[in-house]
Design brief:
single chain, mainly alpha, two-stranded antiparallel sheet
């Protein structure tokens, strides 16, 4: 519609111009090479305009003829590039869907149409990797690693191939090279961290963890996971250090990260006990009992205080009143009171535990208390409730739910670091640092 209006306007303007020229009077004389030509001025102007139009049309026609091969080549290249990009897109879709055969087919087509390049080579490498053709994948990734722009991605691909081949030395070398190119690579850092853990190089693992933390510890669960990992590595470093002063330094670093960590406080207390630093030991243990009550604290205090059992139970009961988790503190004191035969204290503290929060351990303590009171009906009732009640806290891995007798910095089942904590049953299973698994089994 716009084009039609434009043509009409041009036609009207031409008609007006011609009409105006016809109405003009006047003669023009041209003398050239002994000839004299007389013509009306309006006709002369019209001829000049017509000549200019013919010249312009001829110029356009000449340009079209001269550029015709280029236009044909451009159209052919455009169609070729379009088809190549379509093959590349289809190959990526097939790769995402797990169809290795179609992905390889489209990769070959894309390489034929687009030639060698970043995306065709990467698609071919991933398609070969998906199809299980490790040699072809290795060649493609090696080729990618030779170019400046794609070196990092080629090295990561080689790293993953060597992981599948269980070649830890070569995979680590590829990861370290990739890290040199991209210092914040979480993929490379994750693999390096896993290798350092498998080699029991705790101090290097701590350094690697510090590089990973700013990039990964964003969510609350991730922060908790990284905190536990760092504490576990400090604990392992303390275990591997022969010098007691270095042990204390590592454990104090861990306690600064989490003041309520039971295992670190217990180990630190034992070191102070070994060096006859009684005041420091008592301070460490009592503060730990207040923050997070545990039977290990109770045993250390019992070894330290030489007063009779009644006085000791009274002392610990007073400490339990200050605890930030009075229920757990009461459970520890109740168990000790029953062992000592101090039934009034056990009865009083056990009654302070609300029934909705009672665990099977609480009901077992209640059954023991009823047995000492010679009340078989209460014993039977408590045992029945214990069978239905949830389990109490234990040293449990929050990655695989494995239960262990004592704290272990490395889970014996999933080989993950820092995932064992003093937890209730049915913990929230945290996701690993990446989709593949942070630590190599």
């Amino acid at each position: 519609m716009v084009q039609i209006i434009r043509l009409i306007l041009i036609g009207v303007m031409v008609a007006i111009t011609v009409s105006w020229l016809n109405q003009q009077s006047g003669q023009s004389q041209i003398q050239w090479l002994g000839y004299q030509l007389e013509v009306s001025t309006s006709l002369l102007v019209s001829l000049v305009i017509l000549f200019a139009v013919i010249v312009l049309l001829f110029d356009r026609l000449w340009r079209l003829i001269r550029n015709w091969p280029k236009m044909m080549a451009h159209g052919w290249q455009y169609r070729r590039r379009t088809n190549g990009e379509r093959a590349l897109g289809l190959g990526l879709v097939a790769l995402a869907a797990g169809d290795s055969r179609s992905a390889q087919k489209q990769a070959r087509k894309a390489e034929k149409l687009l030639g060698k390049g970043l995306l065709p080579d990467l698609l071919a490498a991933q398609a070969a990797h998906l199809a299980g053709d490790k040699n072809a994948a290795r060649q493609y990734f090696a080729q990618l690693s030779k170019h400046k722009d794609t070196a990092y991605y080629g090295l990561i691909g080689l790293m993953n191939l060597q992981i599948q081949n269980n070649n830890s030395e070569r995979s680590l070398a590829a990861a370290q090279k990739a890290l040199q190119l991209q210092p914040d690579s979480i993929t490379a850092l994750t693999h390096i961290f896993s290798q350092e853990i498998s080699q029991k190089n705790w101090k290097k693992a701590l350094n690697t963890l510090s590089l990973m933390k700013p990039q990964k510890a964003n969510l609350q669960e991730q922060k908790h996971l990284f905190l536990n990992r760092e504490i576990a590595l400090c604990y392992l470093s303390a275990q591997d250090t022969p010098d007691d002063k270095d042990k204390i330094t590592w454990l104090e670093r861990a306690i600064k990260l989490d003041a309520s960590h039971i295992a670190c406080r217990v180990m630190l207390a034992r070191l102070y006990q070994k060096s006859d630093a009684k005041k420091q030991m008592i301070k460490i243990v009592e503060r730990g009992f207040i923050l997070k009550p545990h039977q290990d604290y109770f045993e250390i205090l019992r070894e330290t205080y030489q007063d009779n059992i009644g006085s000791f139970i009274a002392r610990v009961t007073k400490l339990a009143r200050q605890s930030e988790n009075k229920l757990d503190a009461n459970r520890v004191v109740v168990a000790a009171s029953l062992d000592a035969g101090i039934l009034p204290t056990a009865t009083s503290l056990l009654s302070e535990i609300p029934q909705p929060e009672m665990t099977n351990e609480d009901y077992l303590l209640a059954a023991e208390l009823a047995e000492k009171r010679l009340d078989p009906v209460a014993v039977k009732k408590a045992l029945q409730e214990a069978a239905r009640a949830p389990r109490g806290k234990s040293w449990r891995c929050f990655a695989c739910s494995t239960v262990v007798a004592q704290y272990e910095p490395v889970c014996p089942k999933c080989n993950d670091v820092g995932t064992i904590d003093w937890l209730q049953e049915s913990p929230i299973i945290l996701k690993s640092i990446n989709d593949d698994k942070l630590l190599a089994k």
